Amino acid sequence: MERVENFRDFQLYLRSMDLTRESYEVIHVCKEELTDKEVALIRKMAVTIPIKIASAIGQVNMKVRFKMLNNAKVILIQLRATMMEFNKKKKVDDHSLTRVNGYLEEILKLLYGYFGWISNEKAK
Fold first, then answer.
1. Tens digit of pLDDT for each residue in 27-47?
2. Which in 25, 38, 59, 92 has the greatest CB count within 10 A?
3. How high is the pLDDT of residue 1?
4. Measured between alpha carbons, how far is 120 from 99 in angstroms, rounded to an integer?
5. Rg (alpha carbons) of the chain, rounded to whole number
6. Is residue 92 predicted with pLDDT exceeding 50?
7. How confident is the model at residue 118 (pLDDT cuts 50, 70, 90)?
8. What DSSP assignment string belongs to the chain?
9. Residues near 29 by Cβ (< 8 Å), separated by ≥ 6?
10. Which CATH code of 3.40.190.10, 3.30.1490.20, 1.20.1440.60, 3.40.50.150 fits the domain covering 7-123?
11. What are the distances in angstroms from CA 7 to CA 12, 24, 87, 100?
């Protein structure tokens, strides 16, 4: 029987939690400019990413793991597009966008590294 990995040990999960915290900080800083609907959208995306990553890491089936990580990647890209759109509308300041984008870039790099690791595991 295969051992299920603890998602709390993975940098991918830890960085996604940092992104969630940073997204909440952006909401706090820019709450006057953002509508309730926009705040709810950012929160939903920010919380969904670590959930998808944790669920993927806990999967034993590599195909399911890969699919869940791809879902997390899609949400990451949507969050980036949303934050950039809000920045263009002057609802999110440049400094906040830069901090969020830093976490987004780091998570995407870790995701691609994890995809490579999964591919190597499949080949064995």
1. 999 989 999 999 999 999 999
2. 92
3. 44
4. 32
5. 16
6. yes
7. confident
8. -PPPPPGGG-HHHHHHHHHHHHHHHHHHHTTTTS-HHHHHHHHHHHHHHHHHHHHHHT-SSHHHHHHHHHHHHHHHHHHHHHHHHHHHTTSS-HHHHHHHHHHHHHHHHHHHHHHHHHHHHHH-
9. 93, 96
10. 1.20.1440.60
11. 9, 22, 32, 22
pTM (2 decimals)? 0.86
* Spatial CB neighbours of 20, under 8 Å, sequence gap ≥ 6: 46, 47, 49, 50
Q: Token digits for 30?
A: 């820019």
Amino acid letter for position 29: V
Whether 3 shows a pLDDT value over 70: the answer reads no
